[in-house]
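quick one before i forget lol
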Amino acid sequence: MRFNENADLDTSRIDDLRGGRRGGRALGGRALGGRVAVGGGGLGVVGLILYLLISQLGGTGADGFARPGGLSGLAGGQAVDTSQVAESCATGADANTGLDCEVVAVVNSLDGYWTDAFARSGQTYQPPRTNFFTDGVDTACGSATSAVGPFYCPGDNEVYIDLTFFDELESTFGARGGTFARAYVMAHEYGHHIQALLGTTSRVQRGDTGPTSGSVRLELQADCYAGVWANHATTVPTSSGEPLIVGVTQDDVAAALDTAARIGDDYIQTQLGGGQVDESRFSHGSSAQRERWYSIGYDTGDPSRCDTFARGVDLG
């Protein structure tokens, strides 16, 4: 997968909080209360400890991993600087050489696809903002450290990511990585935004776990939405009418599926947690389920095929 080198990038919905975090309310290594946000992820040693702690305490999230508890309310006070990203990320050529610009380009493509998809159904799409942060961040859903991984906060309708997540995904979780695999991560968080816009998120009871729980259904649906976007990725145009993303191969798709498999509940419990599979604590779905629902979205390209909440649906 590559980006059209002549395509213009839009950084207007990117907030760069790197180096501007307000201090004080970092989470450290213990859960501090309710969930920090819908759509996050635990990484590295700290993330693994948090995953195990929260699994035991019954706390769940709606993404690839469990996450630490959040503090209620918005701490605020973070310095936003978009100048560096705006200067560095002007065209697709920049996206082919810089990770932050790569994420900007993927965000542009996601917004382009979902704007069109909502319009076709007679609805108006409201794009989220995407925040780059380092070490920790304060959100409307609470405070979080980088150990949480990328997440979506429905309290402010924004996506948050420390870009070092992608290194951890390969080094700690053993994922193959690559541009399309990283795009899957962002597309998944956007899936949670779609759920928030459609009111799906509110259907899930907090702390609900188990193989057919609402949390698992929400997670698998976000994977399916990510696959839907991936199906259309090479046809989403830029402002000039040319596709932004080009050259997606089957190897790219395989890398995205590999990432989905590395963040299944069963994989984390056995391969990273050193324990046994306990389906009663599932909140995200098994590796096979996550691969299956991403594939459903990718193979059909149809968001309506992503109804994991339908009566009698086979979750896999």
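fyi The chain has a mean pLDDT of 83.
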